[in-house]
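Throughout our pipeline, every protein is held as a single compact record rather than as scattered files. Such a record has a labelled line for the sequence and another for the backbone structure tokens. The remainder of this section carries one protein's record, kept here as part of the documentation:
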Amino acid sequence: MADALATFGGTPGEGRAVARAARDLADDGRLAADRGVEPAVTAETVVRELRRAPDGGPSERWNWWVGSLDVAYGGYRAFAVRRFRADGDATG
């Protein structure tokens, strides 16, 4: 997924942090339950949703989408990307 996220710029580390958050969201199962679609989180879904964001790099776009999910369903703030390292390790 990190390669697909390169479309939105940012650093490789930022892309990997977003990919990790996407895996966490997929593993949680919440989005599948809320949307009634399985699997709800795929690379294609993430790229499509991030294209809808007004602007920004991968983490800004991801956080825009997660914020939209939080408004619509509640409980998605935990999946926001808050920090990332240039080397790619998500830090929380």
